[in-house]
Structures are given as structure tokens and as C-alpha cells.
Amino acid sequence: MKYKISELAKLLNVSTNTVRRYEGYGHIKSKRDLNNTYRYYNKGDLTRLMTVRSLRKYGFAHNDIIEMKDYNIQELIQQYKIQDQNMQDEIAYLTNLRHRLSDDLILLEKTNSIYQHLYIRDCIAYSYVLYQSGANLLLEENRTKKIHEYLYLAPEVQMVYIIRKEDIECDEIDINMGWAVKVSDLKQFNIEENEYTERYNTRKTLMSLEKLPVNIDKINKNTLNHEKAIFQEPFSYMRKHNLRLDGDLLGVKIATITENNEELEYILFNIPIAEND
User: Smallest Cα–Cα separation from 103: which of 121, 124, 117, 88?
Assistant: First the structure.
């Protein structure tokens, strides 16, 4: 039997260009009618095309499918085992990614209540690598490689803001930005720390939700101390309860919003605290 390219395209619900592309990969081969210029395909082409579409659903690459045409049954079993493991890895990755999404959703839904109430807890231990300090991007080769690992290998990666303890009393405080993963996840995602990574260890922290302008590079002293300043409420709480700052601030980005035509970010800050002597 002979089939027109338009018939194959209609049967598969794809464009004729897709059929031509599959032919270009070498999956099928058309013949030309001697009496006209139409392409025709035979039953073998139809079967191979259906097989390719099925294998593509399993995630096999076109190059793999082309090689698999010449496999015996043992080789085919081995290729299926490899793809089965790939799918299991992808399912695990998506499961973790969905867990991160679910956590973010919980934070978003609690945003209003968190913003009205401070609370104290032991923070999660994070490993992070910075990509920006103030207005400066940090582009050392080994640093950028590590940034890519954190950003792309770990599904539960989080954007974080670091404000150094020693900078709090200065006139201007650089906003340090980076990507962080839980220390407990490092081994799971085969991520190794290096000279560009830092640890934020578990400690008692005062949790405070703050809103920062997206384009902010520095926080000056006036911003910290102004009546409507960021950290005004947690710093007031600390003074009232005889607490002191006991380390760097780590903020986890929750969301980007727009209010009064200004782009803002909700950031949940971990503020390390200890009792005054």
C-alpha cells in the first residue's frame, strides 16, 4: 500500500513538516511517483513512524531510536532498562521539585499572617554560593560552575539574600545574593562544596517577613532605623526581649509582586539571636 505524506500527518495529528523531519532523521524513506512529484510511503514506513512516536513518548532520543533499529532482543532490553532508570531519576527529581513548590505555596498562603507576627525557631542548615554582592556579579570560573550545580542539579534550590552581621552597624550594607540548598540534600544531589560555598548552620533565629524593592543594591543606616524601615519590627522585638544579633541574616525569597507600580520581593529572613549577657 502507498500513503501520501498528508495522510500520515493526519493520522498522527502532526504537520507534514514533522513527517519530513522524521524522514530527515532517517526513520522513514519516501519514494517518488514516476508520474508526479508526490511523496509516497509504504506500510513499513507507517509502522516505523508509529513505533518512533511510541518510543519518543518514553523519552528516547531520535539518535537512540535510530540505533535501536539494529538491536537484537538483548540489546533492546538493556536500552529499555537504561531508559527505565532515567525515568525513575526524573520522577524523583520532579517529586522533589513538587515538594519545593508545595513548600513555597504554603509560605505564600501564610504570607499575611507571617507578616503580622514574628516567631522564633531553629533555622534549617543551608549550603549556599553567592552570585552577587551589591551591584557586582561574582563571575569566577569555579564559582559559576558551582552556581550552575546548585541551580540546575538540586530541585529544591532556593534564592537567598545574605546580610553580614558586621555590616549591620555600617552606613551601607551590601545585599549579597545566591542560591542555597539544604545541607541534608547535598549528598542526594551529588553536590560537593568548594571554596566558593558557605554554610549557614542551624541556630536559633527570629523569623521576619520583609518586603524589599527588586532593584535595591544597598541598605543604608537610615533605611534600617527609619520608622517604616525593613527589620524595624524584629529589631524592636529584640530590644524589648533583651536579645542581640548573633550572626549573618539569611533571607529566603518567597515571591515577586507589584504594589503601587513598584516591583517588590517578599523575603523571609532568618535573624540569628542570642540573649544579652
Answer: 124
What is the CB-side half-sphere exposure of residue 166 using CA atoms within 13 A?
A: 0
DSSP 190: T
Cβ contacts of 140 within 8 Å, gap of 6 or more:
196
Maximum Cα–Cα distance across the chain: 98
What mean pLDDT comes out for the span 226-254? 85
What are the phi and psi torsion angles at 206 (to 5°)?
-95, 120
Burial 244-260 (b: 16+ CB within 10 A, else e): ebebbbbbbbbeeeeee
Residue with cell 531519576: 89
pLDDT class of 40 with cuts at 50, 70, 90:
confident
For 258, the grid coordinates are 507589584
Spatial separation of the C-alpha atoms in residues 177 and 135, rounded to whole Å: 10
Closest-CA residue to 235 (of 277, 206, 264): 206
Angle subtended by helix axes 43-57 and 16-25, to nearest 10? 90
Helix ranges (H only) for 62-198 are 62-68, 73-116, 141-153
Q: Quick one: CA dihedral 153, 156, 161, 166, positive or negative?
A: negative
pLDDT digits (tens, 9 = 90+) for 248-258: 999 999 888 88
Contact in structure between 86 and 78 (CB atoms under 8 Å): no
pLDDT at 84 exceeding the cut of 70: yes
Q: Name the band, by pLDDT with cuts 50, 70 and 90, for residue 135.
A: confident
Any residues with CB less than 8 A from the CB of 34 and at least 6 apart, and which? none
| Mean pLDDT, residues 209-221 | 74
Q: Mean pLDDT, to the nearest integer, of 129-155? A: 91
Backbone angles phi, psi at 20, to 5 degrees: -65, -35
